Structures are given as structure tokens and as C-alpha cells.
Amino acid sequence: MIRRKLSLAECAARAAETLSKGILLTSCAGDKVNSMVIGWGTLGVNWNRPVFAAYVRVGRFTRELLDQNPEFTINMPLSEPDRNVIAVCGGKSGRDMDKLAACGLHTVPGETVSVPALREFPVTLECKVLYRQEQDPALLPEALQTRFYPADKDSSFTGSNRDAHVTYFGEIVSAYVLEPEEGGDEA
Ligand SMILES: Cc1cc2nc3c(=O)[nH]c(=O)nc-3n(C[C@H](O)[C@H](O)[C@H](O)COP(=O)(O)O)c2cc1C
Hints:
Elements: E1 2-5, H1 8-18, E2 23-29, E3 32-38, E4 42-46, E5 49-57, H2 61-68, E6 71-76, H3 83-89, H4 99-103, E7 107-108, E8 117-118, E9 123-134, H5 142-148, E10 165-179
Antiparallel strand pairs: 1-10, 2-3, 2-6, 4-5, 5-10, 6-9, 7-8, 9-10
Flavin mononucleotide binds at residues 22, 34, 36-40, 55-57, 60-62, 86, 90-94, 158.
């Protein structure tokens, strides 16, 4: 595969188009590589650097991996995302299974980070965490607290639950789309 570089504007356009359908955040630590679906994300500039901010609830396995290894990749599809990938990576925890193997997702080594990109979700942002901050839901308007932090749903619930989000501000250190090499034998 080759990495065709993307500008920040191209990344922002792709993120705006795909986030509402679910994109992937991949993290790794030790011998675990794991992808989760995210529907929230902010792409912009912080501390004069290009940043992707991801919002990961405290109880997610992804949060554990990110705290062990503060690097991640954002993986976006070229067209509609595979519904099975969204169901598995957005509804099961990497604590219990190897989601990449279950979904037939193939890793490609990162260019500048220890976390891989994904061949099937080829639009890639490589990010290094500059700052992390746990949110305080009590500071939100009450309607949002009730809607997004239901007290009767514990951490194990893969949808909205009582856990706060941790914001991970990742500096975008490389952005590209994975493409098959010309003359290569990739299908
Ligand atoms: C469309 C969609 C968007 C989601 N967005 C987020 C999100 O932005 N933050 C979050 O913490 N969980 C989000 N989730 C839930 C996680 O993807 C889900 O809980 C996943 O199982 C966590 O995996 P992990 O335990 O392997 O980290 C979303 C799920 C779906 C289906």
C-alpha cells in the first residue's frame, strides 16, 4: 500500500461526511490492537497544531489502551461504512474479543505512530495525544446530562451510560489515504 498524503482541509471534509455514520478509532498497547466506533470528534487547531479531539467514555477498553499508549489512528471509509464493522466495533468490547479478526479488518503499520492504519478504512489520521481531560457531566445543561449520562446504565453498556467522556486531544502527525501500489497484486 502507498500513503497518499492529505491536507487538513481534505481530512476535515472527510470527517464531516463520515462521522455521523460512525468512523473508527484504533488504539494499541501490549499485544492488543483494538478499534471502536466513534460518532463524536472535533478536527481543528489547538496549541498551533492540527488536532483531532476524540471523546471516549471512561469505561471503554479503548480508554485503557489510550492511557497505556497515548497514540491512536482515526480510520474513515471511502464510501459507506460496512454495517457489520459498525455493529461489532460499536457494540462489542475489545476486552472480550479480537474485533479486527472478527470483522476481517487488516492492519497496515503506522507511518509515525505505533498504532496501525486499517486497509478497509483507508482514510487515516495518525495522532499523538497532547492532552487528556475527563469531563464533568454535572457542568452540562440538565437535558444533556439526562440524555447522554443515564444513571441506570453502568460502564458495561456499550451505548450511552453513566460514565463521563475523556477528551483526548491528538496532534495529527500524519494524514493520508492508503492506496494499492500501482502494479501491485492487491485485490
Ligand atoms: C455510531 C456509534 C458511535 C459511537 N460513538 C462513540 C463515541 O464517540 N465515544 C464513545 O465512548 N463511544 C462511542 N460509541 C460506543 C463504542 O463504540 C462502543 O461502546 C464500543 O463497544 C467500545 O469498544 P471498546 O470497549 O473495545 O473500546 C459509539 C457507537 C456507535 C455504534
